[in-house]
UniProtKB/TrEMBL annotation:
<protein>
    <submittedName>
        <fullName>ATP/GTP-binding protein</fullName>
    </submittedName>
</protein>
<feature type="region of interest" description="Disordered">
    <location>
        <begin position="1"/>
        <end position="29"/>
    </location>
</feature>
<feature type="compositionally biased region" description="Polar residues">
    <location>
        <begin position="16"/>
        <end position="25"/>
    </location>
</feature>
């Protein structure tokens, strides 16, 4: 009859010193979160809108601004905007989000 002792009784030497330093180092994501705050809601004349600031470091693609019809080149800080009160719900609203020049959103005409 084998006894079930011996294999677990002693701590082995092989896994010495778990690197505790790696665990406590902050990850890069934390930094990007600071630059990427939660969207806020703007109550406007034409409804309620979510507005998400897109910092230059996170803007990796070219977008077309719906206000002026011109491009927002990569690495340009801008705004991402979608309806807060979309009739088909929040997911649909986010799908239809638009990228705006920050200035265009502020000065947009009352269409
Ligand atoms: Zn624009």
């Amino acid at each position: 009859m084998p006894k079930r002792s011996g294999s677990r009784g002693r701590s082995s030497n092989s896994g010495q010193k778990p690197s505790k330093w790696q665990k406590t180092m902050p990850q890069g994501r934390d930094i990007s979160r600071i630059l990427d705050p939660a969207p806020y809601v703007e109550h406007s004349f034409d409804g309620d809108w979510f507005i998400q600031f897109m910092p230059a470091v996170n803007a990796l693609k070219t977008y077309i601004c719906p206000e002026c019809g011109r491009k927002i080149p990569p690495r340009t800080a801008h705004l991402v905007i979608w309806r807060e009160d979309h009739m088909f719900g929040k997911d649909r609203a986010i799908e239809e989000r638009r990228h705006w020049h920050s200035k265009c959103w502020q000065t947009r005409s009352k269409w």
